[in-house]
Specification:
mainly alpha; two-stranded antiparallel ribbon; 7 helices; 2 strands; elongated
């Protein structure tokens, strides 16, 4: 399995309680896939959300940037909710790391060896061992296993 495929698969192991409040709000507004795309693109960066799609030149440019990441509907929702505000998009590093660790455990549980896990996730076998010892079971009731474009639970 390719590393890029595993990174996408690891997103299945994100738990709502791991996400910061702003990320949970974005998931509720945009759905998981579009919120994930926004976090991947703009995570940790303050983004001035324009007042409208066709306002000043800078606002129109920002709107186009949003459309590229979350689509026109997503950009319109962000303007409706955060228009004329600076939205600090969370980077969700801790949540992503926990999700990756859960993905490692799940991959190992399918019969993969320590070496298979290390190669697949680009880490050492020692790190795989530590992850397997430290990672808590995934709380099923909080999993964000959302399909493309679906709203948050």
């Amino acid at each position: 399995m390719k590393r890029q495929d595993l990174a996408v698969q690891a997103a299945q192991f994100v738990v709502k309680s791991d996400l910061p409040e702003t990320a949970r709000d974005l998931v509720g507004l945009l759905g998981w896939e579009r919120a994930r795309a926004l976090i991947a693109e703009w995570g940790g960066i303050p983004f001035p959300v324009p007042k409208s799609a066709n306002g000043c030149a800078a606002g129109a440019r920002r709107y186009e940037q949003l459309v590229e990441v979350v689509g026109e509907e997503g950009a319109d929702l962000l303007i409706w909710c955060y228009g004329d505000e600076t939205l600090t998009v969370p980077n969700c590093r801790a949540a992503i790391a926990r999700a990756r660790n859960r993905a490692i455990v799940a991959f190992y549980d399918t019969g993969a060896t320590l070496e298979d896990c290390a190669r697949a996730f680009g880490i050492t076998t020692r790190w795989v061992s530590l992850v397997l010892k430290r990672t808590q079971p995934m709380p099923r009731e909080e999993v964000l296993l959302l399909s493309e474009g679906s709203p948050a639970p």
